[in-house]
Amino acid sequence: WQWIWRLPLSESIRFFLWQVGHEALPTSAFLVQRHVIHDRLCSRCRNEVESVAHVFFRCEHSARLWRLLHMEEAVCWWLGSWQQWLKLCLQRCHILPLIVCWVLWKMRNERIFNGGDFSMWEALRQVHALHATMVRAFAVADDNIPHDMGLTWVSCIFAEGLQTSLHVDASFNTTSSYAGIGGLARDSNGRWLWGFYGAIEAVDALQVELLTILHGLRTAWNRRTQSVLCISDSTVAVELVMHDILSTNRFATTLYSIQELVHRRWTIHYEHSFREGNMCADLLARLGQTLGLEVEELVSPPPEVESQVLADIAGGPIVRL
């Protein structure tokens, strides 16, 4: 266990992780075993015995934080041994999952001892801020201390001023003749304006990305949008729509249709985003793939997307693994 004391984390977090590794964290289950208290249920959800695994993974509030960080995979690495899980997290994601556990423990204690609670968006901000602080603090460190692998944090891109941001994405599966498309328009504060999702016939992933851009721009034009920042996580698609069209390009017809829209009396700019910064459109495209051959316009976000819309507005960045 000496490796824990060499982690690039504050002393309080190191001691916390030492307790986790020795299964000595004072959860309700632990305290009942030692006849300190009588109630072993989780104080937040009241659904299960409050074990360490419940605090970190199984409680619905904890599971939601992992989902918003898009790190559900880290939960699956736990197979019963806390020592193995901590080491695996360190190898694959450096200190980030360890900081998530620390913030979840602080949330739990805030409720028990002060009767308060963090909002999920406050928890996201704390994870990001604490990770950045630890990375800076241990940037120049002893060779025996494991170094950060250079994790990249990605936030959702919003337009500025009166411009509308149009986030689009596609979901293509080679085993299906249907591809999902999805998109949403937001104001400069990230608030939902309108959206769309559905399924179309397609044989190529890039073809679907371009058709999604085309559909999104057509919808924006029909809604009398004056200025659009179109955001896609397809690097190739963004490159194609921003440059001259070759008549020999197999997607020339779609590209000319997009170009015709660009030449109308409005302004269109394009920007590439990593997928982690385009999660709402990604979720809409995946949902759209289940609809059959139709595309629906959305006045409000579906329940499956609503929490991610709020997370983007709150400015909660997502780690790009």
From TrEMBL:
Residue stretches in coiled coil: none
Superkingdom per UniProt: Eukaryota
Residue span(s) of domain Reverse transcriptase zinc-binding: 1-66
A GO molecular-function annotation: nucleic acid binding
Domain RNase H type-1: 168-286
Protein name, per record: Ribonuclease H protein At1g65750 family
